[in-house]
Amino acid sequence: MRTVARKIAEWINRLGSVWVEGQVTQLSARPGTGTAFITLRDPSAEVSLSLTCPMGVLRSVDPPLTDGARVVVHGKPSVYLARGSLSLRVDEIRAVGIGELLARIERLRRLLAAEGLFSSARKRRPPFLPNRVGLITGRGSAAEHDVLTNASARWPAVRFRVENVAVQGAQAVPGILGALRALDADPEVDVIVLARGGGSVEDLLPFSDEALCRAVAACGTPVVSAIGHEPDTPLVDHVADVRCSTPTAAGRHLVPDVTEETRKVLVLRDRARRALHGWVDRERRLLDSVRTRPALADPHQWLAYRGQEVATLRERGLRAVVTELNTEETGLRSVRSRLTTLGPAATLARGYAVVQHVDEDGTPRVLTSVTDAQPGTRLRVRVADGAVRAVVSDQTPRGDRR
Questions:
Q1: Chief location of this protein (predicted)?
Q2: What are the boundaries of each domain within the chain?
Q3: Tens of pLDDT along 64-114?
Q4: 112-256 placed in CATH 3.40.640.10
């Protein structure tokens, strides 16, 4: 084990000097000692590093270092073999000034804007009446009181899930990130509020942290930012779905005003009542108008009228059929009379006869020439009232009148 620790220490010693930026979370400088011990923490992650610093270097920092200060230190990493711990031996400390902090925030602002995290197209509108409101704020803070009081005054039935975290200092960003994840995972929470009172630029630095801004952008629940006062605009204000100038404004924005909504309901009910009454009156007048029409005033009259029309048409149809039958019957009698006059029976009745001779096969044929009736030919003579049979005894040619 000692060999491993020694090998690690030798490898770290070859790294050379480095610059490290962080936030001072613990400062130990006992009088009479030549070395100060500092714990430097990453503002965005649960990572810390121990520093050892000569007292002369610590006293040269202006303004004097305090817990929560942002600094950049230069030193050489080393491993303490007795404990196996890593530390940084510092030879220079620089306090991060306001101007440099603002410049870094501005660079981060441009980066996030270029990635589209400030775009209004990705922002969502919180629900009109959320089921439960998630609130991330400092414990017992004025911001918590303002949000709860104003929201409850507007809608007494509003429900909150409050997550109290540090809103400044080294623990602020990790605490806010944890609370944000917990509220986003709660299915009853419909909107999340980040609330903090005003403060200096250093106090509001956690709300311009890159990790927090990206977490707010990735949150599945709409986020309302209520940080500081009107002039305070940390980066999370631009990333959040809704930005309120103060926690008081956030409390008023979260839920509707029950008095105003009640008034709107009453107005709408009154309008609906008037509209319904107007519709009923209009339909009643229309029904009365329809009832006064002759077809509905005396329905039997129209039935009798139509019945008379049907009877008249029926009588006209019957007369037309009878007339047509009479005409056809007269024509039929005329044709029958003509056929009777022109028929063979009428001719026979006038004294004519039809003479037929019988062929050898027994078939009777009309005799049309004397040449077909040789003496001895059997004949059948048909007259009006019957037929007689005769035998040809002689022929008389045409022109012989004897």
A1: cytoplasm
A2: 2-96, 112-256, 296-341, 348-391
A3: 777 777 788 888 888 776 666 788 888 888 777 655 666 777 888 899 999
A4: no
